[in-house]
Amino acid sequence: MTVALSPRYAPDYAITINGSPLPAPLRAAVSSVRYQDGRQAADRVEVGLANPDLRWLREHVRGLGFSLPTGVRIGPVGVTGVPPGLLDLDNAVNLSLGYAGSQLEPVFEGDLTGLSMSFPNGGMPSVTLIAHDHLHRLAQGSAARGFGLLPDFLVASILAAENLLLPSIDPTIIGASTAIAAVNFVFGGSGRKQRGQSDLQFLAEIANSYDADFWVEGNVLYLSRFLKEYTPRMSLAWGQSLLDFAPRISTVGQVAGVSMKFTLREIPLDFLVTVFWDFDRETLGVSVLPGVAAAAGLPFSGPALTVIDQPIASPADITTSALRIYSDLRRRLNSRLTGSASAIGDPAIRAGAVIRLEGLGPDFSGDYRVTAATHTIDTGGYRTNFEVCKEILP
Questions:
Q1: In the chain, what is the greatest distance between 2 CA atoms, to the nearest angstrom?
Q2: Domain definitions of the chain by residue range
């Protein structure tokens, strides 16, 4: 683990489009660089460009599909020294961040997905380049189709391949989904269906079934129940590298346990499966009770969430539902203590990372999981704003 110290040198960045660095005239026009990193969502980059004399509009308007304001003429192409087509949509974009004098850290690889123009009254016109990582491909369109009794890991692999990505699936998901598919085959269960969802929504449904996360790095789509790290990669001290921190404590929607009542209609038989957290012992408990015994009370004290009347088509339904129970409990417990913070710019502060916050007293110092981060380089320097949660259940 490293301790983040205040850098004494200038912020720096490197942007390439289709593998080539920004031409000098274009880089000189950059007014800001903003990178947003989140979990289970496409990362986003925005690059602000000053647009004096509408030079970037004249240079590239033919390929952008925008209409020019009344009275604006398109000048000769190539006068700015920037290759025509450089700002065309779907061009490959890469971004690295850091400080001058040290090696920049690659943080983003994606596609140019949009451009926005601004023509202020009395101010400098501007162009903003917008890029998303390759996860954005899964958000295009929707589909309604079935996949038979294919295991979920194969379904996820198909989604990756259809969107020109290489799948990397957690072995535990491969094993669990294969076993569930086999049970469904024996007991006549139904397979996975995409019901008018985008591929991104459908992948999120699959991931939630296994309490897993998914993300893209380069051209690889990852689906895993295990995040990359569980120990802090760095420490931020309030008043030094940690500029500010605003914690939030909430018990709204929080529960100590999540239960699901299963019903086997053929017998008939019902029973209650409960996953709960013992705050005194800091342990996770599981309880399975017949419906009659469950009526006598839950095996824990505290607020509970109960999902009733969950029909069982095959034993595989119990497995997937148990994962849903744990996932719901984890999400609710981990939302008890969250916070917003800002720090001196550091590309190591990324969604999914664990960082240690210090100097905040015994109640708020400790290890936190970063859930989202925004890196900004502009005239004010390099600053990182991020969201965190205190994990009770990792």
A1: 82
A2: 2-137, 140-224, 257-334
Q: Over 90: is that where the pLDDT of 133 sits? A: yes
Assign domain 140-224 to its CATH architecture: 3-Layer(bab) Sandwich (3.55)
Terminal Cα distance for the chain, rounded: 19
Tell me how far apart the alpha carbons of residues 160 and 140 are, in angstroms, rounded to a whole number.
Answer: 13
The alpha carbon of 126 is separated from its chain's Cα centroid by a whole number of angstroms, namely: 29
Instruction: Mention every residue, 6+ apart, whose C-beta is less than 8 A from residue 176.
Output: 210, 319
| d(C-alpha 209, C-alpha 211), whole Å | 6
Q: Which amino acid is at 310?
A: Q
Give backbone dihedrals phi and psi of 256, rounded to 5 degrees, phi first.
Answer: -90, -20
* pLDDT per position as a tens digit, 63-106: 444 454 554 444 444 445 677 778 888 999 999 999 998 899 99
DSSP states of 320-355 as a string? Answer: HHHHHHHHHHHHHHHTSEEEEEEEE--TT--TT-EE
The pTM of this model reads 0.79
Q: Which fold has domain 2-137?
A: Thrombin, subunit H (2.40.10)
Give tens-digit pLDDT for 24-50: 888 999 999 999 998 778 899 999 999
| Same fold: 2-137 with 140-224 | no
Closest CA to 203 of 229, 149, 167, 171: 167
